[in-house]
């Protein structure tokens, strides 16, 4: 209805508001888990929000990552213990990344996962300009382990911590790596400590190629929950490298993603293969990662890197 002005002239029509879009509902995969309002974590866990996501592109690569709190931690008032970080290496146009999963038995593993990611990223960005040879991942891992030791020493009021004390406070898994543009296709290098994982997803057929051993794949005889995490640095370190084509994407994730994914031929694998054909928005990746499926209630983190089809390396 248009109301006249005081002088008798007609007022401009009032614009009709567009109907509000329906709120996103959690994506259900198979039989969903129970729905409930998340409970707050402890009052000093304010640095660990329920959900984080990020996304951007370089001339050669597109990155997205998300990390979400699992249903178990939402219910029992615990903070998210997963972390993910990524940064562009400006001299080469490459990307350095780290994904970590704080071990649940450690008292403050949410701090351990974040600090391990930060330390690994700092060290990789420092080492990347030092030549075209292999990344010195043992150095990266030791740098991350030393950061955890320093954190434990601060937590213990300056007392030198034993290795077991560091692990008891801040134990965490870690996958750290780089993707460098190359005329023949981007080169991926990465290392793994603990049971987080990495895959190459073939975008043309939806198949997942695991880059590290799987604890849930069809070739695994016995599922084990044992992990040997940071601050322990294995010798030799589990590392690998691969070259991507323009019809492949690199996926790096914690076991909250890896366990429901399995060998990739089920409903979860089909969902992500379909949704990751093109880079989604960061918020949509976070929403996708927060799918509901019964018995899978761990924190989940996923980092994805796609090469550009027509990218020219810097």
Structure, explained:
With 314 residues, this protein is α+β, with helices and mostly antiparallel strands. The protein has one domain (51-307): Phosphatase 2c, domain 1, CATH 3.60.40. The protein has 7 helices and 11 strands. A 6-stranded antiparallel β-sheet has the order 1-2-11-10-7-8. A 5-stranded antiparallel β-sheet has the order 3-4-5-6-9, covered by helices on one side. Strand 7 and strand 8 (207-210) form a beta hairpin. The longest helix is centred in the middle third of the chain and has 19 residues, at 109-127. The protein is globular and about 65 Å long. The protein starts with 50 loop residues before the first strand and ends in a 7-residue tail after the last strand.
Topology:
Blueprint: E1 51-57, E2 61-68, H1 71-75, E3 82-89, E4 94-101, H2 109-127, H3 137-155, H4 163-170, E5 174-180, E6 187-193, E7 197-202, E8 207-210, E9 238-243, E10 248-253, H5 255-261, H6 267-275, H7 282-289, E11 300-307
Antiparallel strand pairs: 1-2, 2-11, 3-4, 4-5, 5-6, 6-9, 7-8, 7-10, 10-11
How would you summarize this macromolecular structure in one to three sentences?
The protein is α+β, with helices and mostly antiparallel strands. It is 24% helix and 24% strand.
